[in-house]
C-alpha cells in the first residue's frame, strides 16, 4: 500500500501478517499495545501478527506512507534460510522504529514490489528487509560463511548466464547449487562483488546495448531484455553507461 491521508481515521483492527510501514512525510499517530505512538517522516512502523491498532494523521497536513504485509510463514522461511534464527517468530517490542537503515530497506522492498523489479531482486530485498528488522527486534545474526562459497558462487553465475533473460528466482539458484538462498547470495557477493540480481541486470544491459547498436527499436529492446518498459531500460542504461539508449544509438551512428 502507498497512500496519503489527511482526514481518514483507521478503525481499530489487526492483520494476520506482519505489517511494516515507512512514513515518507508528515506523521501518523496510533494506539497499539496499550500506548500512544507517532511515526514521523523516516520512521518505521512494525506491527506483529494480530496486533490491534488504529491510526490517523497527527495534524491537518496529513501523512504519506508505504506499507508491506508479510505472512508469518514467509518470515519464518527467510530466517530459517539464513540460519541462526531466534526460537520461534520474532516479536517487535515497540511498534515504532527510528532506524534509517530499516526505513531504507522497507522503502526499497515496497518500490521493488510495485515497480516491476525482476523476481530475483524482489527475493533479495525481501530477505534483506526481514533480516534487518529481525536484527533490530531480537539481535539475531545469520550463520557465518563456509569454505565452499567460491564453488557455490560459480554455479550460481553459470545459471544466471544461462537464464538472464528469464525471471529466475532465488529459489532457482538455491536448487541449482544445493544451498540455501542466503548462502547463494552471500557467496555470490563475496566472489563477484555484487548481488546476483545486479549481475543479472548487467547481463541484460549488455544484451540491450548490442540490440540498440544493431538498430532495434528501443521499446522492443526493453521487452526482449527483461525490462518493464522503455523508461525502465533508460533509467538503468543511463546509470550504468552515463548515456541514454537514444544517445548511445546516435553515437554509434556517427562513428559508423
Automatic annotation (TrEMBL):
Start and end residues of each HTH araC/xylS-type domain: 154-251
GO molecular function: DNA-binding transcription factor activity; sequence-specific DNA binding
Domain of life: Bacteria
Pfam families: AraC_binding, HTH_18
Database matches in SUPFAM superfamilies: Homeodomain-like, Regulatory protein AraC
Record carries keyword Transcription: yes
Keyword terms, alphabetized: Activator, DNA-binding, Transcription, Transcription regulation
Protein's name according to its UniProt entry: Transcriptional regulator
Amino acid at each position: 500500500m502507498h497512500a496519503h491521508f489527511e482526514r481518514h481515521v483507521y478503525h481499530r483492527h489487526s492483520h494476520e501478517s506482519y505489517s511494516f510501514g515507512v512514513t515518507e512525510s508528515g506523521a501518523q499517530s496510533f494506539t497499539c499495545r496499550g500506548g500512544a505512538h507517532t511515526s514521523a517522516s523516516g520512521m518505521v512502523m512494525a506491527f506483529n501478527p494480530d496486533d490491534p491498532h488504529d491510526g490517523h494523521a497527527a495534524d491537518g497536513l496529513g501523512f504519506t506512507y508505504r506499507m508491506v504485509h508479510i505472512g508469518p510463514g514467509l518470515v519464518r522461511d527467510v530466517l530459517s534460510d539464513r540460519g541462526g534464527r531466534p526460537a520461534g517468530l520474532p516479536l517487535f517490542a515497540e511498534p515504532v522504529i527510528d532506524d534509517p537503515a530499516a526505513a531504507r530497506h522497507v522503502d526499497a522492498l515496497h518500490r521493488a514490489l510495485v515497480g516491476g523489479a525482476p523476481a530475483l531482486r524482489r527475493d533479495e530485498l525481501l530477505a534483506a528487509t526481514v533480516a534487518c528488522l529481525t536484527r533490530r527486534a531480537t539481535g539475531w545474526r545469520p550463520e557465518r560463511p563456509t569454505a565452499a562459497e567460491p564453488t557455490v558462487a560459480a554455479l550460481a553465475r553459470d545459471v544466471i548466464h544461462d537464464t538472464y533473460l528469464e525471471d529466475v528466482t532465488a529459489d532457482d539458484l538455491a536448487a541449482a547449487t544445493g544451498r540455501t538462498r542466503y548462502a547463494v547470495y552471500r557467496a555470490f557477493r563475496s566472489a563477484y562483488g555484487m548481488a546476483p540480481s545486479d549481475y543479472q541486470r548487467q547481463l541484460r544491459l549488455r544484451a540491450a546495448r548490442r540490440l540498440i547498436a544493431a538498430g532495434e527499436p528501443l521499446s522492443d529492446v526493453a521487452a526482449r531484455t527483461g525490462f518493464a518498459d522503455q523508461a525502465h531500460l533508460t533509467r538503468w542504461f543511463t546509470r550504468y553507461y552515463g548515456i541514454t539508449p537514444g544517445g548511445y544509438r546516435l553515437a554509434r551512428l556517427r562513428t559508423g
